[in-house]
Amino acid sequence: MTHSIATTNPEIGKTCTLSVVAIADNGAYLDAGNLGEILLPNRYVPENCQVNDPVDVFLYLDSADRLVATTQKPLAQVGEFISLKVVQVNKMGAFLDWGLPKDLLVPFNQQHKKMEVGKYYLVRVFLDQRTERIAASSKIDKFIDIWPGEYQEGQQVKLTIGGKTDLGFKAIVNDLHWGLLYDNEIFQPLRVGRQITGYIKRVREDGRLDLMLTRPGKGKVIDFSDKLIAYLQDNNGFSPLHDKSSPEQIKQILGVSKKTFKATVGNLMKKGILQIEKNGIKLK
């Protein structure tokens, strides 16, 4: 069995792998390097845990402002953007459910607009350097890098969907830069905060990024093949869609353009996986 390698410089607000240095009545103490020894409370200690065992943990300040470790995984870490639900608002600010017992605070001065209980907001998780507390901010633009990134056309990237614009959707690329997805190239429902894989379509002269959701060129066919096969398997191996079906119908049912649908069908026919019927397509 291979063991995880301990993280050299663990950070508050990030997951890391730490070694157990002692087992005590209240839990296991972990070697967190420059952060010192950190308690992993009993309820999170793995079964049969022993000294020198590596443990994957997340580091944060508990409700008493003590640095502790947990094996629970938050929905986002420091440096990431995510859409979270407000569960409480009080005199300190708004509190978001991010998957840990201690909710995530958005102070009033970090709210782009006043937050309301029950609503979802796109936020950036950050570490307050003065207090070492993890907090969140809905003032997204101040966390976007002002310097253009170095991207290649066709490069796969992580996208976090931002707001709707007249042209399409803004999206945050790799938690660093804004890019744009154009309406006429979006063939699936999108919502603010959704995280999805995308591709760089074009890097403009001013450094702005045009994005797309399908891999350019031949890769687009490969990308959709698995989804089409799965769709057919879920529908008794048959679909009434064919080359005379309208682009709107194909987009509504499969979430892709007619061009991608036809290219994928052609590719799967060549491989002997599909056959064309008089009234649709069928898995062989």
From TrEMBL:
Signal peptide segment: none
Q: Which residues form the S1 motif domain?
A: 11-72, 77-139, 152-214
Q: In the record, what terms sit under GO molecular function? A: nucleic acid binding
- InterPro entries given for it? CvfB_fam, CvfB_S1_st, CvfB_WH, NA-bd_OB-fold, S1_domain, WH-like_DNA-bd_sf
Concerning its family, UniProt says: Belongs to the CvfB family.
Name assigned to this protein: GntR family transcriptional regulator
Q: What is the lineage of its organism?
A: Bacteria, Pseudomonadati, Pseudomonadota, Gammaproteobacteria, Alteromonadales
